[in-house]
Amino acid sequence: MEENKRIIPVDLGGEMQKSFISYAMAVIINRALPDVRDGLKPVHRRIIYAMNELGLTNDKAHKKCARIVGDTMGKYHPHGDSSIYDALVRMAQDFSMRYMLVDGHGNFGTIDGDSAAAMRYTEARLSKIANEMIRDIDKDTVDYYPNFDESLQQPVTLPARFPQLIVNGTGGIAVGMATNIPPHNLGETIDATVALLKDPDLEAEDLMEYIPGPDFPTGGVITGVSGIKQAYRTGRGRIRVRARAEIEAVKDHDAIIITEIPYQVNKEQLVAYIRQLVRDKKIDGIADVNDESAEDVRIVIDLKRGVNGSVILNRLYKHTQMQTTFGVIMIALVNGEPKCLSLKQA
Question: Active-site residue 121, yes or no?
Answer without folding.
Answer: yes
